[in-house]
Amino acid sequence: MKTIRSKKWLRRSGTLLAGVALAITVFGFNTPVAHPTPQNEQIASKMTALQNTNQRWIQIDVSNQRLIAWEGGAQVYAVIVSTGKSATPTRTGVFNIQTKLRRDRMRGPGYDVSNVPYTMYYQGGYAIHGTYWHNNFGTPMSHGCVNVAVDHAEWLYNWASVGTPVVIHQ
């Protein structure tokens, strides 16, 4: 009798622990905490300030490969993206969209891609843009840019304007 109760207890405990693990995963409690640095503090401060406005802004979470379009504190669009590979990382920080081009040619060491759709440059050669050459969104694939599926890039391109803040963090 004691063995049967022990097995039931073990089964219930395992179910409870699995439920807790799922909740931790779903709610992101296992996400690593960024160490306080001047840049991390600037990013957090900017995000808080933007959420207290009605302004449109874009958040890119490199760790989770996610882009969220915001209007103040309200999420209006979210997509899975591909940011830079470890050898060519996407820079973190607070930026603004500087230039929008419906199509552009992008060149660099090891790549030359024409007709890159819905390109929005936010710092030098770094941009959020449509990507037709891969479908591995959710995996770092780029040379530092933020790759977005073409249909999502079109939506973002039409929604954002020059000057729209872009906040990129780990």
* SSE series: HHEEEEEEEEHE
Number of helices: 3
Distance between the termini: 52 Å
Residue fraction in strands: 35-45%
Low-confidence stretches: 6-32
Helix proportion range:
25-40%
What is the molecular shape? globular
Radius of gyration: 20 Å
Major beta sheet, strand line-up: 3-2-1-9-4
Structural class: alpha+beta
**Kindly state the mean pLDDT as a whole number?**
86
Major sheet attributes: 5 strands, mixed
Record field, number of beta strands: 9
Give an account of the 3D structure.
The protein is an alpha+beta fold and 170 residues long. It has three helices and nine strands. It has a five-stranded mixed β-sheet with strand order 3-2-1-9-4, with helices on one face. The chain has a four-stranded mixed β-sheet with strand order 5-6-7-8, with helices on one face. β2 (66-71) and β3 (74-80) form a beta hairpin. It is globular. The chain starts with a helix and ends with a strand. Mean pLDDT is 86; it is low at 6-32.
Report a brief summary of the structure.
Strand 6 and strand 7 (126-131) form a beta hairpin.
Any descriptors?
4-stranded mixed sheet, globular, single chain, 29% helix, 170 residues, 3 helices
